[in-house]
Amino acid sequence: MSVVTVQLGQCGNQVGQELFDVLCSDALAAHRKTYSTASCERFFHLTSHGDLEARAVLIDMEPKAINSSMTKALKGGRWRYGEASHFSQKQGSGNNWANGFCVHGPRHKDAVEELVRREVERCDRLAGLMTMMSVAGGTGSGVGTYITQCLRDIYPASFILNHLTWPYGTGEVILQNYNSVLTLAHLYQLSDAIVVHENDTVHGICSRLLNIKPIAFTDINRVIAHQLGGVLQPALTPDSNGVYSLNPLGELVSALCCHPEYKLLSVSTIPQMPSSSVPYSSFSWTGLLKHLRQMLISNTKMEEGIDWHVRPPAASGRIRSVAGSSFNTSLANLLILRGKDVYCAETGNFEEATIYTPWLSPAEAFSAWKSPIPFNKYEKSATLVSNSQALLGPLEDIVRKAWNMFASRAYIHQYDTFGISEDNFLDSFTALEQVVSSYRELKS
Amino acid sequence: MTQSVVVQVGQCGNQVGYRFWDLALREYASVNKRGLYDDATSSFFRNVDWRKGAACSVGGQIQHLKARAVLVDMEEGVISQILQGPLRELFDSAQLLTDVSGSGNNWATGHMTYGSVYRELIVDKLRKAAELCDCLQCFFLIHSLGGGTGSGLGTRVLGLLEEEFPGVSRIVTSMYPSAEDDVITSPYNSVLAMRELTEHAHCVLPVENQSLMDIVQKIQMVAHGAKPELMVRRNATLSSGQGGVHEVEKPFDAMNNIVANLLLNMTSSARFEGSLNVDLNEIAMNLVPFPRLHYLVPSLTPLYTLADVNAVPRRLDQMFSDAFSKDHQLIHANPKQSMYLACALMVRGNVHVSDLRRNIERLRPSLSFVSWNQEGWKTGLCSVPPVGHSHSLLALANNTCMKLNFMELKERFTKLYRKKAHLHHFLHVEGMDLGCFTEATSSLDSLIEEYDSLDATRAQATPDPPRLRIAT
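Output (structure tokens, whole complex):
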């Protein structure tokens, strides 16, 4: 089954291009025929000339980012974007969610829907749709939200996964917190699952694990692509009966998003290291999974500076202990293991009841996917997709900063011009405070 | 890709504009080596040769490029010089509007008299320029505030732009008179013009002659070898007009070059590729939290390049520090002592996102931001550097320090106004009455008050407003 990706805005188009690059180079590496076939069917289709063409639609309100992504893909030579599967305009959304959502989105609805429909019709079987965008700017966030809404209307029964890039906390776009609040509040009603990458976290991975200096956006996007690839490439799932799963998005959603109040997923991957060191390193599954589990419960997003003092609260009585205050409670976790000896990996320490919310049994809360094929040159690698309190802190920061700005009515006139009133803002704030409170309550 | 139209009004506006077109051509010549007419070139120029392959040799001889500009002056001097100069082919007569008698340093003559006489003609020329764009995004108005034409007619044009093209951005570069300006009526002209700027512009970039002069002097000192480790690249657009079409330097040219560079660097991220684009409509969107407070303090770095090419990271960090030092500001003001409402860092050239983050974190503690915008940074990365440099930074600060400049201007105005000096020259003009003066001063007062009330929040620690509570 196939996934159709919709890339929106400068960020979405840059990250999407890196993702397809990782997927393609991983799929085409030697000795993996069924894996390769499964991956290619999922993300690419063959043109009459035998070229791999990404099952993707590129959308932006401004031409430069799309042009550069398409050229980059062509230059790589392994795959490319469809000649006609992009849509751009001349003038961007000006970092304003309202401009994207109320003006550009509705104006170009038909054109975008047509492009997506064409891409969907090329699939033998549609596994679902994935949108990629940032929440900071105007096009990704505003048009992206609007288009997600349209797709939800046209494909009511399909899985829709939104991949979001969250901006640097110290500011990329001044309106980023307003735009994030409006995007998240709306997507929460529409999406089946929201996968989040924070630029700050990924920046840390680039500088501390990968030793990249100086760090460019390409480096950051490549890390995101690697982590996403680890999730999206074919794997054997509990329901797939020994062959590669046909329904990656559906199984992801059913493994992780069992409750409509909880849709925010974070991703962490282990190991990550400079590509020059990869061939000289070897790992044991026990070691990797021990680290990954501590990263999960201590909410450390990379394999460095892990706080080993954090322990799950005592099983008896389930009373919040002092030591447990920094403990990251999960609702559900999906562990994806790829590489050598994958069937010997022991995942028991992810199945303890103490790391999950009391109202879900570990058997329901934990799932594992496996594939014996090494991913993206790593002999062994583990990716954890987690529906936990990991994003509570960053989400609260966004809501708090946006609320402070809203209290002084700064910048509101810019949104009002395009038809987003103070009441619309209040609705979004209410919705997100609800999400924040739900995640905070996971513990008890 | 979008297009912009430059509207240059008055003597000063046209002189700055002239330098802008010269440097813009040089920039395209150095970026676009093959001389093909492309999207980037189209943002400021139109191609009048539609033959197939339409090559246009940028730089050498201008054959097929016309500037997207409207030139207005109520004297003939500057514009006729432009028409005799090497850039004459950039403009055709449909883009020009001149009169012979000038505005006599009188805002009222420019705004009321000429404004009414030439209204239709100006609108017509603006419309023609707009029709030649396929997606017009922005008008750049260049003028000075001290005189009569730029100040009076310039702000009249600004009003017309708002009426005729409400959806198009209006970014104004205004030359503010120095305290010892030789035009005696300049405080009147400036205050009257300020009201129009406050009400009708999206962004104003205030620039002062004295600051430009200081910057030019600094560049010349380095060029003449005051410090051996510093040097000025001969071909840099910032430091000299050499290499451009126009070879002989006139006294004001060096100063006007700086303003031209400001416009080039502000628009580069919308014209060229980069990993973090900034479209022109994002500037006002991010930097203007309240519609009237749209005066942005610009600063440009580096002014010259260090000869030592090895100290790259240090040199980069120095560039960011410099952007927050007074020496690099295009107007005398003190943002570090006041409060930032928002700040944009627009970087060109070989600079990465990690350099940007590192410097924001480094500079952040020394700057005070308004409580609700503690992370008020807008950032841009354009991969094409300015001519003659490997990288550059333009900082635009929306800062309450502008209040002091406005208070000082108000003081100079009051000194004249109390004695009713020269007032009759203004009141003679049809359409002008004392009401215009009182309205202009009260507009300026309320602007100063708005800055004041924001400044007041700085003294007290503002607690976070109580959040919405969810019933559980």
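The first strand of chain A starts at residue 2 and ends at 8.
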